[in-house]
Design brief:
There is one protein chain. Helices cover about 80% and strands about 0% of the residues. The protein is an all-alpha fold and about 160 residues long. It has one domain (about 1-159). Helix 1 runs antiparallel to helix 2, helix 1 runs antiparallel to helix 6 (about 120-159) and helix 2 packs antiparallel against helix 3.
């Protein structure tokens, strides 16, 4: 049984890393699930309660930031309400129509279109779109970093 759980943990880790790029999959949460599986597979338990709580909070926090950062980026780069609403609508449409990269492109495009609707001209609208794009990239980097750290601890315990 423990071999099956360890193999399942490896699969969760691989899918978790893929999930950092493909927005439909909750990457860090899957990597955390692999740590939990390992906790119940290996005796004595390899991780402290504090470690697991920290990793769990990290996984949930980064997963939430993944949706918030692109909108914050648009706002930081001068987006109005039109740009924020456009970024949100673009994020949803992009995710549905063009996964996995539609989320990033949709957010950026939605912010630009929203700003045009709100009356901003080319350069100002583009600046808002670039802000959402940059923060989307930051979110991917944060997810990958957290997932790789959790995967490192998983592999470290196994080997």
């Amino acid at each position: 049984m423990s071999i099956v759980l360890i193999v399942l943990g490896f699969i969760l880790n691989i899918v978790g890393i893929i999930g950092c790029i493909i927005p439909i999959l909750p990457g860090p949460v899957l990597n955390f699930a692999a740590l939990i599986l390992l906790q119940f597979t290996v005796t004595p338990h390899p991780f402290s309660t504090l470690f697991l709580i920290t990793m769990g909070l990290l996984a949930v926090g980064i997963s939430l930031l993944d949706n918030i950062l692109p909108l914050m980026g648009a706002k930081l780069y001068g987006a109005t309400k039109y740009g924020i609403v456009g970024a949100l609508i673009g994020m949803i449409i992009g995710l549905i129509l063009f996964p996995p990269f539609g989320l990033i492109i949709g957010t950026m495009g939605g912010a630009i279109i929203g700003e045009y609707i709100g009356g901003k001209k080319g350069g100002q609208a583009l600046k808002s779109g670039i802000g959402s794009f940059l923060m989307s990239l930051l979110a991917i980097i944060l997810k990958l970093t957290a997932s790789l750290v959790m995967m490192f601890y998983f592999i470290k315990i196994i080997f």
